[in-house]
Amino acid sequence: MSGLRIQAQHLRKQFRQSANGVLITAIEQLDFVIEPGEIVAVVGSTGCGKSSLFDVMIGLQAPTAGRLLIGDREPYRDFNGFRGLIATVFQQDRLMPWRSSLDNVCLPLELIGLAPDEQHRRARGWLERLGLAAFTDAYPHELSGGMRQRVAIARAFVLQPAILLADESFGHLDEVTAAELRETFVALARECGSTAVLITHQLEEAMSVGDRVLVFAKPATVLADIRVADWPAERRGELREAIQLTLQSNRCDERIARLAVQQPADAVIEQLGARDKHEQSDQAIKANGR
Amino acid sequence: MRPSAAAEVVISGGGWRLPREAIIALLVLLVLWELASRNAAVLGVPAFAIPSLERIAKSLITVTWVDVVVTVARVLGALLCSFALAALIAIWMYCVPRVERYAYPLVRLLMAVPVISWILFAVLWFKHVEFRIGFVLVAVCGPLFLVDMLSSMKGVSKELRDMIHSFRPSTSQLFRKLMLPAILPALLTSWKINLSLAIRVVTIAELVGAVTGMGHQLSVAQELFSVADVFAWTLVLVAVLFALEAVLNQIEARVLRWRV
Known about the structure:
The complex is a heterodimer.
Chain A: E1 6-16, E2 23-34, E3 39-43, H1 50-58, E4 65-70, E5 86-89, H2 101-111, H3 116-129, H4 145-157, E6 163-167, H5 175-192, E7 195-200, H6 203-209, E8 212-216, E9 220-227, H7 236-249, H8 254-258, H9 265-289
Helix pairs in contact in A: 2-3, 2-4, 4-5
Chain B: H1 3-12, H2 20-38, H3 40-43, H4 53-61, H5 65-95, H6 97-112, H7 115-125, H8 129-154, H9 158-166, H10 171-209, H11 214-223, H12 227-255
Helix pairs in contact in B: 4-12, 5-6, 5-8, 5-10, 5-11, 6-8, 7-8, 7-10, 8-10, 10-11, 10-12, 11-12
């Protein structure tokens, strides 16, 4: 199945804390477009709203304001309309402990009502592709962390979904396993033609998997939208440094702004100027308050 | 691993083997009982109060199996009804939080009513004996099933719920594919607890208001001052409970074979 376009339009997400009723803004305002078949990594510091965006994209949470469109529909409002179109790989494998590897991979196919024989054929095929042919009958507790995550990846790909979402899916694995799985994930996503969004806090991961890297401020707004191909291999160190500075200062590094993808540099600088003014006015209010 | 823990593993693993310690403890108890029976006069107890093992064995031979079957049928029938009713209400309460907010206090209220009160209500409200016994069992076991089911459904990990929701299941698929298997261990534990409770409750209910069943036979034995018969029926009750628990253990070992 070919990928679908993902578009965030003035997307905002707020939560009210159940303990004290305080309103928390997880997503300030998000505007971005991810084209069909693109692989985009989202980076940001802890608590910057990456996972809230993930929940909105899956359709588990409704936006407070604005819209998130997949194709031309909203996954929250048209929840069942996306059955079989979206698949996810979570931070933890989230395998059902009572199901064997094969049955875990069959789950999404059972939910779309595929015939059992066809379910097993497809699930076996994906487990084989992910090097787990000998472990189809193994229960999750009999597998290593890396193998369990492979099963989770097979469970996502077995649908050959239009949209693939991965939320820090490789961060808890050792470096070698994580690199290997990342590579497999990207290769399979390209092969399926799915639009893939990988949420991560690891810059190396973001730069190595994505066609683009979206850098989020806290709360989430797009600080930088980087096309990785614009940064040749010898400048990757510089890119890494620029993203780090962007994250630390909560403003787009000039080196990135010059090569911004969707927003011309002038617009970015203008935006930064507006932010500066906004911050100055906040400081003035605080100072007056004191 | 401690020896007792090792024994537990053997039993829970499905390959049931009576541990040596249990056999020794039972033999010691039987020997002590027989000694007490033979020396009742020395202990200052009437001889009929501690019948010999031989006398109890004779009473066991005269046990009427139809009463055993009747009691077991009442227990299983009432437990199945309680379970079905509790499952429907628990799912409703889980799906509609407002229903839970209204119904839960009532369930807690029902759970606080003593068994003997339920028996008296049953005698006062209903004519039919079977209905009385069924009512008491459902009133006592139903709320327990419901509370166990509801709390175990709420305890299903958010991670797994989000995972399956991301694949967009129907409500029926959600319960069949996730909820039921996830709460199965808790349900089986609930069945074991309710089974033991139901055997005790049905005995009291039969003792008070029935003309068949093991509880009724206990009542007859008491009227005849036959302590040996009381012991024989008590042993049968315990054996029935153990047998039913063994069946549940077998089911548990089979359906929860995925557990470490």
